[in-house]
Each structure stands twice: as C-alpha cells, then as structure tokens.
Amino acid sequence: MSALTVDPAPGPGQDWDDLVRIWEETDAPEGCKVEIIEEIVTVSPPPSKDHNTTAALLQRRLYTVIPEDWEIYQTLGLSLPGRGGIYIPDLVVVDRATATGPGNTVPAEEARLVVEITSRANANHDRVSKVNGYAKAGVELFLLLDPWHSGRPTATLYGEPEGGTYRVLETVGPPARSFPGGGPAVVRGVNYSRVPVTCPGTRCRSSPTRYCPSCR
Predict the structure, then answer these.
(1) Is residue 8 pLDDT above 50, yes or no?
(2) In sequence order, what are the residues at sequence separation of 6 or more whose Cβ sits closer than 8 angstroms to the Cβ of residue 157?
(3) CB count, 10 Å around CB of 110?
(4) d(Cα 183, Cα 149) in Å, to the nearest integer?
(5) Under the phi-then-psi rule, with left for phi > 0, alpha for psi from -120 to 50, and beta for the rest, what region is 117?
(6) What angle is formed at CA 56 by the lines to CA 172 and CA 59, rounded to 5 degrees?
(7) CA–CA distances in Å: residue 48 to residues 1, 75, 120, 163
(8) Interval 86-120: pLDDT, tens
(9) CB neighbours (10 Å) of residue 186?
(10) Do the Cβ atoms of 157 and 170 come closer than 8 Å?
C-alpha cells in the first residue's frame, strides 16, 4: 500500500499554518505515519516487520556511540517550513533538551542524524524528496537504508550539506542473500565511526561530529 493524500488537500494560497493544522487534525489508523511532503499531507501504512527490526538493531548500536545528553526518537516530527514539509524519520538523533517541551515537532536543522528506511511503495519520497529536504534544511547527517535499490539493498550516508546539496560520505551494499526482504544485514555494513559524536578537534568550527571537514 502506498502513501495516500489526505483530503481536503491543501489548495492554492494556503499557508504553512494551514498545512500544519491539516496535519495535526488528520486521524490516521494506529501505526500509520502522517507527514507533509512537498506541501502535501500524506498517510503511509505501518512498516513491515523487517523494517521495524532494522530500525531496532540500528537504534541499539547508535546508543553505544552517542553522548549521554542525546536521544534517539522514532516518532518525532522534523519541521521544514521552507520546504513545505514535516517529516517523521524512522530514527532521529537530537539533543534531549531540544526535544523536550510542548509541541509535536522540532526544527529539522536541530537533528544530528536522521535515518530513513525505504518501503517498496514509498521509496522515492526517501530517495528524492527527503534527501533534498534534509540537505536544504542543513541536517548534519542523513543515513538512507534502501532494501529496494536496483534489486540490491544499500546503505548511503549523506553529510556535509552545502548549498542545499549533500555529499555522499559512504555507500555500502551487502550481498542480497544476506539481507532477505530488507532485514538487518545492511545495518551491519554501516561504518558507525561516522555516526555523530563529539568532535575531538580543539579547533573544530563544524557542528560537533567525529567526521567533519576540519578534523577528518
């Protein structure tokens, strides 16, 4: 099942507040994900078991490398008003203080790392719209786990956003037989040394990451 457009769809002249109101008032079935993607409110069906397992395994590993005052969230909305979007990544790493308080979203640029795991029917949202949106918002690192990429699963780590465009920092693709149906093998292939942690460089002027232009 692919993502559905919510009625009433935003019409000409509707501003950001109108979109957010429609998003907040959308009553989707339990487990579905409601997002705004390119000014369209969409509802995606619940993820598969393999999808959930991949997210869980990655989350377990991320907790071993992030600072104590950072957290990993699965249902936190990231607001991109300049891109007409509210994305809900499969995982997002953000400072605990930023995600504390009222409301349902945080500014996307506050995210240290976002992770999207593609579903077969909605993969282009993650491969195109969200790559562009996260880059233009200045999200530090974006990890795309794509079980459906050209018939072979891949993991691509994007970073160093500049001028609204990411640089591809690393891509890995394990043999398809070790990743049936989009399972956890792609997680084992990711280089976690490039997951954001405090930069050891004393003169680093970049956002606090281990893998940054000044200190790598």
Answers:
(1) no
(2) 141, 142, 143, 144, 168, 169, 170, 171, 190, 191, 194
(3) 18
(4) 14
(5) beta
(6) 70
(7) 11, 16, 10, 35
(8) 999 999 999 999 999 998 999 999 999 999 999 87
(9) 25
(10) yes
155 Cβ contact list (under 8 Å, min separation 6): 143, 144, 145, 146, 171, 172, 173, 186, 187, 189, 190
Strands 70-73, 77-80: pairing is: unpaired
Mean pLDDT of all residues belonging to the chain: 79
pTM given for the model: 0.74
Residue type, 96: R
Pair 43, 32: CB distance under 8 Å: yes
> What is the four-CA torsion angle of 117, 120, 126, 128, rounded to 10 degrees?
150
d(CA 72, CA 91): 6
Of 127, 192, 199, nearest to 166 by C-alpha is 127
Which amino acid is residue 4, in one-letter code?
A: L
What phi and psi, each to the nearest 5 degrees, are found at residue 101?
120, -175
Across 151-156, average pLDDT:
86
The type of residue at 136 is K
Q: Which of 91, 182, 93, 83 is nearest to 131 (CA)?
A: 83
**34-44 residue pLDDT tens:** 999 999 999 99
N- to C-terminal Cα separation, the chain: 42
Backbone φ, ψ for residue 205 (5° rounding): -110, 5
